[in-house]
UniProtKB/TrEMBL annotation:
A Pfam family the protein falls into: Hydrolase
Source domain of life: Bacteria
Full protein name: Haloacid dehalogenase
MF GO annotations: hydrolase activity, acting on acid halide bonds, in C-halide compounds
Recorded family membership: Belongs to the HAD-like hydrolase superfamily. S-2-haloalkanoic acid dehalogenase family.
Species: Mycobacterium cookii
Length: 234
C-alpha cells in the first residue's frame, strides 16, 4: 500500500499521445511501418547515451539523427522533406482515444496534473499536447530541455518538484515505459505504468516496480480513486 499522490506527472509520447500515428511515414520511407519502432527505440537509447556522456542536444535533433542513421543502416535514401515530415508528425500526433476521459476523471477527483516530456518546447507554434487537445488538463508542461538532461536522469524529476514546491513523495510518475517510472522512483516518486501495446512490466528482482499498473487512463483513474487514501498494485 502507498499513500495516494496529490500530483500526477505524466509522460507525453506514447503515454498520452499515439506515436503509432506516424508509422505510415516510416512505411512510405522504409517499406515497413514497424521501422518506426526501431527508430523510436534508437531515439530513446541515444537520448540516454547523450545524458550519461554529459552532452545535450534536443530530442527533435536526436530524432532526425536517428532517422538518418536508420536510413544508412537499411541503405535507404532519405530526403530533407522526409526529415521535415517526421518532425511535423511528432508535433501533431493525436491523443490516445482514452486519454481525455481518463484525465477528466482524474481532474474531477482533485489531482494536480502536469507533464514531463523529453521533447523540447515548440517555439514556432502549439505544443504536441495542444495539437492533441489535452493541454487544458495540465497546470504546467515541463520539458527536460530546461535541465539539459533526458529522462530517466534524476535531476529531471527533481526539477518538477522544485518548480511545484512539492516533495517527491507527493508525486506519481505516469508513463508507458518502466524506465521512466524507475527514474522517477529513484528520487522518491511513486510510479504508475500504463501498459500501452508493446509495453509491459520489467520483472527484474532488485529494481523498483510500478506501484500501480493500468491498461489505460480510465483504468488508472478508477484505481487511484477507488480508495481515497491509498492505492495498490493491480
Amino acid at each position: 500500500m502507498i499513500a495516494a499522490p496529490s500530483v500526477l506527472v505524466f509522460d507525453v509520447n506514447e503515454t498520452l499521445i499515439d506515436i503509432d500515428s506516424i508509422a505510415p511515414i516510416f512505411g512510405r520511407i522504409f517499406g515497413d511501418r514497424q521501422a518506426m519502432r526501431g527508430w523510436f527505440n534508437q531515439l530513446v537509447m541515444y537520448s540516454m547515451t547523450v545524458t550519461l556522456s554529459g552532452n545535450y542536444v534536443d530530442f527533435f535533433s536526436l530524432g532526425q539523427g536517428a532517422l538518418r542513421m536508420l536510413a544508412d543502416i537499411h541503405n535507404v535514401e532519405i530526403s530533407d522533406d522526409d526529415v521535415r515530415a517526421i518532425k511535423q508528425a511528432m508535433l501533431t500526433m493525436p491523443a490516445h482515444p482514452d486519454a481525455a476521459d481518463g484525465l477528466a476523471s482524474l481532474r474531477d477527483n482533485g489531482f494536480r496534473m502536469v507533464t514531463l516530456s523529453n521533447s523540447p518546447p515548440n517555439p514556432d507554434g502549439p505544443s504536441p499536447l495542444e495539437h492533441a487537445g489535452l493541454s487544458h488538463f495540465f497546470e504546467h508542461q515541463f520539458s527536460v530541455d530546461a535541465s539539459r538532461a533526458f529522462k530517466p536522469a534524476p535531476a529531471t524529476y527533481q526539477r518538477v518538484c522544485d518548480q511545484l514546491d512539492v516533495a517527491p513523495a507527493e508525486c506519481m510518475m505516469v508513463a508507458a515505459h518502466v524506465w521512466d517510472t524507475i527514474g522517477a522512483q529513484s528520487v522518491g516518486y511513486s510510479g504508475a505504468l500504463i501498459t500501452r501495446p508493446g509495453n509491459t512490466l520489467f520483472p527484474v528482482s532488485g529494481l523498483p516496480q510500478p506501484d500501480v499498473v493500468a491498461r489505460n487512463l480510465p483504468d488508472l483513474a478508477a484505481n487511484l480513486t477507488h480508495r481515497p487514501d491509498e492505492t495498490s498494485t493491480q
